[in-house]
Amino acid sequence: xxxxxxxxxxxxxxxxxxxxxxxxxxxxSINNSKRVGRRVVYAQPYGMLARIPxxxxxxxWLFLDNDADCISNFSMDRNSFGRLCFLMRGIKGLVDHRYxxxxxxxxxxLSILVHHKKNRVIKFDYIRSSxxxxx
Length: 135
Fold this sequence. Notes:
- This protein has helices spanning 2-31, 48-63, 67-74, 78-90, 102-115, 119-126, 130-134; strands spanning 33-36, 39-42.
- It has 135 residues and is mainly alpha-helical.
- β1 (33-36) and β2 (39-42) form a beta hairpin.
């Protein structure tokens, strides 16, 4: 008889812990969600590291494919672009920042000059924040 009581108590304890776990997981999912109409959209964690492969791929597309792409994007070939970056780094003192290299800074500037692009277009093209582009 005593063994049945102990088993019953253990089973009740497990059931209550399971219920508490379900309630807590539901509450955590509510905190990370936003209701849009009838749908519930869960917040995705945002990090700078997630965007870096896209940014590197875009920079490789701009520079490393061929001279024709570089000429159409910046009105200069890759050699001239490299020399310009070297001069900006050496003479004008332009330095690599934490997330943006000198090549990328110069390419953003040239895109604005050559194609008359706005900051929000550069932000989209280079996958950067508007604050980074405006600097």
